[in-house]
Design brief:
Number of strands: 0
Number of helices: 20
Structural class: mainly alpha
CATH class: Mainly Alpha
Largest sheet: none
Order of helices and strands: HHHHHHHHHHHHHHHHHHHH
Strand content: under 5%
CATH architecture: Up-down Bundle
CATH topology: Sodium/glucose cotransporter
CATH superfamily: Sodium/glucose cotransporter
């Protein structure tokens, strides 16, 4: 217990120290929300990765999908690495950085507002973000608190209050740069921790080969009659596995807190470096989490009584005190990095896109920063209260909470954001159609899932469906609705045509 407490206190001290160290860079909106575009490749890549993977992934998704798909759940982690990280950086990174800086937009709603000269789009997007980031944030507390309760025997409510308070302090003190530097430190902890924990856990059943052999002997007639299906290449349900890969990988392309990382890229070289760093980070962390979760059936867990969220804590219960301390810091790092990204995205959206010019006219920089900090605290408190209520009423699993949030946000924003970076033909009406469809179908799924076809009753499958349909809706609706103003679109896209000088190693220079 002394080891656990000492490591925990050191982690808290470093986290808070970074927050106050960065306070001078968070005195205006540009510095508070984007860090003044001063985050280099390593900070941006780690900020992207640590915001991506949280206790929801490690405790909720890895446990549930490892149980459902066996070792094949590793495909989810690889999809996160190559689609959710590498491809996202390649497709979105440069264009997002160029157009958002050109349009002087700091948030996704502000981007839509300026890209289409639409105040209503800006307000609508900000409301969707605020509403659907809350269940995601609540799910973070749940996963973290289960591990804390196991390691320290601390009440759930106390864990939530401590995590919420610490995150609020360093975000309020240092803004984006504080979160980016802390994300880097927390990312290093996650990389080291996941490797150590996988090695220690597999050793219990005779290493990787022994564990794989034991998993091949596991049978569950309610899932599949095929022998060794949980140790197979694609597992017992390839279609559902594909839906999870789509939701958790492609979904990041439309999540405000993820896309916002591209806004802060420092220069061109950071894009290529960042894409490689974030991909390797995802391979180790996400691939490792789902790989580990695939062996969950080898450990005694009463799913009917405790639920899927108890699988990973059950696997970890036999770790040494030192590894348990590392595990707690790993989960804490993953959760706090994502939570800080979520509260910063939500509070900046409300301040810049909803309150500024709509509720408070001619808002000064100083007042914007003040309101933003207040909203950080408000958002943390609201999500913490919801997490406590959810825990006491046992209304949903972690994965379902995250599925609703990801499905609604990515279903609403992925297609209009992606197409708006690449095409001058996308219309305001197409954006509204995607907003309403994505947020609407996930809201209906949350309350009336029984009316949906069996294949999309799950929030996971429904979220993947919403994203795919959005990619069809936006270009189709754009064909039949009022065309955007040519001068407006030409202005937005002129940032791509600007001539720049590059080193000879990047171009032959024959012309």
């Amino acid at each position: 217990m002394v080891i656990k407490i000492c490591i925990l206190l050191l982690f808290f001290a470093v986290t808070i120290g970074v927050g106050f160290y960065c306070r001078k860079q968070a005195t205006d909106i540009h510095g508070f929300v984007l860090g003044g575009h001063a985050a280099g490749a390593w900070l941006t890549a780690f900020a992207y990765g640590t915001s991506y993977f949280s206790a929801v992934i490690f405790v909720g998704y890895a446990g549930q999908f490892g149980w459902r798909f066996g070792i094949a759940s590793t495909w989810i982690g690889l999809g996160n690495a190559f689609i959710g990280s590498l491809l996202a950086w390649v497709v979105l990174g440069r264009r997002t950085r160029l157009m958002t800086q050109h349009l002087k937009s700091s948030t996704m709603p502000e981007f839509f507002g300026k890209r289409f000269n639409s105040r209503s789009l800006k307000i609508g997007a900000s409301i969707i973000i605020f509403i659907f980031l809350i269940p995601y944030t609540a799910s973070l507390y749940n996963g973290l608190s289960r591990m804390f309760a196991m390691a320290f025997d601390i009440p759930y409510e106390v864990c939530i209050i401590v995590m919420a308070g610490l995150t609020a302090v360093y975000v309020i003190a240092g803004g984006y740069m504080a979160t980016a530097i802390n994300d880097f430190i927390q990312g290093i902890i996650m990389l080291v921790g996941i490797v150590a924990i996988i090695a220690s856990t597999l050793r219990i059943n005779g290493g990787f080969i022994g564990s794989l052999d034991a998993l091949a002997r596991v049978s569950d007639a309610s899932v599949s009659d095929t022998p060794g299906v949980f140790a197979s290449f694609f597992g017992p349900d390839p279609f559902s596995l594909l839906a999870v890969v789509i939701l958790t990988s492609l979904g990041t392309w439309g999540l405000p807190q993820m896309v916002q990382k591209f806004y802060a890229i420092k220069n061109e070289s950071d894009i290529s470096k960042g894409s490689i760093i974030s991909t390797l980070f995802a391979v180790v962390v996400a691939g490792g989490c789902y790989f580990l979760g695939g062996f969950g059936r080898l450990f005694p867990v009463d799913i009917a009584k405790e639920g899927y969220d108890a699988i990973i804590p059950g696997m970890m219960s036999n770790l040494s005190d030192f590894l348990m301390a590392i595990l707690i810091i790993l989960i804490l790092s993953a959760s706090m990095s994502t939570l800080s990204s979520l509260v910063l995205a939500s509070s900046s959206t409300l301040t810049i896109d909803l309150i500024k010019d709509n509720i408070v006219k001619n808002m000064s920089e100083k007042l914007q920063v003040k309101i933003l900090k207040i909203l950080v605290m408000v958002f943390v408190i609201i999500s913490a209260v919801i997490a406590i209520i959810q825990y006491n009423t046992n209304t949903s699993f972690i994965a379902q909470l995250m599925g609703v949030s990801w499905g609604a946000l990515a279903g609403a924003f992925l297609a209009p954001f992606l197409f708006s970076l690449y095409s001058k033909k996308i219309t305001k009406a197409a954006c509204w159609t995607s907003f309403i469809f994505g947020a609407g179908i996930m809201t209906l799924n949350l309350f009336f899932s029984d009316i949906f076809p069996a294949v999309i009753q799950s929030p996971i499958n429904c979220g993947a469906f919403a994203m795919i349909i959005g990619l069809i809706i936006v270009p189709v609706v754009s064909l039949f609705t009022k065309k955007p103003d040519k001068e407006l679109t030409d202005h937005a896209f002129e940032c791509y045509e600007k001539k720049v000088t590059v080193p000879a190693k990047e171009a032959l220079g024959d012309e």
